[in-house]
Automatic annotation (TrEMBL):
Residues 4-268 form the Nucleotidyl transferase domain. Residues 339-440 form the Mannose-6-phosphate isomerase type II C-terminal domain. It comes from the Bacteria. The keyword Nucleotide-binding does not apply. Keywords: Nucleotidyltransferase, Transferase. GO terms for biological process: GDP-mannose biosynthetic process; polysaccharide metabolic process. InterPro entries: Man6P_isomerase-2_C, Mannose-6P_isomerase_type2, NTP_transferase_dom, Nucleotide-diphossugar_trans, RmlC-like_jellyroll, RmlC_Cupin_sf. It comes from Paenibacillus cellulosilyticus. GO terms for molecular function: mannose-1-phosphate guanylyltransferase (GTP) activity. This is Mannose-1-phosphate guanylyltransferase.
Amino acid sequence: MKLVLLSGGSGKRLWPLSNDARSKQFLKVLKNEDQELVSMVQRVWGQIDDCGLVDCSYIATGKAQIEMMHNQIGPSVPLIIEPERRDTFPAIALSASYLYSVAKVALDEVIAVLPVDPYVEGHFFYTVKRLEKTLQETEADLALIGVKPTYPSAKYGYIIPEREQNINDGLMKVSHFQEKPSEKVAVGLIEQQALWNCGVFSFRLGYLINILKEKGYPLEYNQLVEQYHKLPKISFDYEVVEKTQNIVVVPYSGYWKDLGTWNTLTEEMGQNQIGRGTISEDCINTHLVNELEIPVTVLGVPNVVVAVSPDGILVSDKGASPRIKDYINYEQGPMFEEREWGWVRILDNERYEDGRTVITKRVAIKAARNLSYLMHLNREEVWTIVKGEGEFVQNGISMKVKAGNVLHIPMKTLHGLKANTDIEMIVVHNGYSDEDKVMELYSSWSEMTKHCLNI
């Protein structure tokens, strides 16, 4: 069996910590067994490892998330890259073409697809393992996992099984689906043994490849990438699952939750405060998450989430927090990005009357990591090292740098930096073009030392 984890969402409901460069699954707000803060993707990848599924797992994600994935779960994780965000059917179709044409997976191999960020107990992935045997024994076209409801939720979709019908080991044939019913309707669905739809699908690779053939889509990964923009923006549920007749569902009775909103995420954080600040004792069920160095004080306000990041500040009643996606403005672009070599935080972004754009950033580079050897065609830069030591290269000439050094980098000047210890610096970009053009020569330090003779 091959496992494909979908990691394409933007996580708008967890603004301001999540943005287009850092989706919700990368937010380090959950505690692991060692009481360390980890992200959803780190937690799930650890559970998959414990279950022995890592070696057969892939992550389908967009270009913007490649560095974050490498940074959080390692550079060796197999990634299937989507050229743009288009919903779950295109993502799963692209994954199937990759497995078929690049990984050379056999057509009778079972593929299981699930979100990268479910909050579940570890034994959930043993239920995922059951999907392979389930498809083999039932000869169904699709096998799903359904969560046994603990209350009549109006937030989740439901899988309704056929009446008076139960296969071995609790398996049930699927009759139809119900998308986010009212609580009153949900009560009746639960009486029919309906299950929460947790977005886990499994099928033989050949089943989906045949669907792609019927729709006239190319089966070669590179060709499908080129035509990806033509695929419909539609969910796998609507395009495939609800059009399939022979479906079975495997019930799961353990803990499961979708942490897609601030009110559900804070229930699992394990602490009511992350970052600098104070919450008064009469703030019952109030959470503060602060990524800035500015202290935040919350007094006498119950059932509230306060989230502070370089992208903005959210103060919301927990019940109202899912509505944030209807109010936020993403036009400013991400103000904080984690990179494989460190992180970048935008401190100021100004446009002046003479047409200049000046951007001030705080940049951190981890020890033994490096920035690429490149040149900017439309801007000059000034770097002020405020912490650490490293080696700076400009036009093939190397020099040691440390805290207190100020470096001027004119336009069209090759430059790179390696951190010997953790480095932090203030970077000021100054240019007359909104979009800088970059020419990268080398990405690794070994390439730089090999080809830059003056080092």
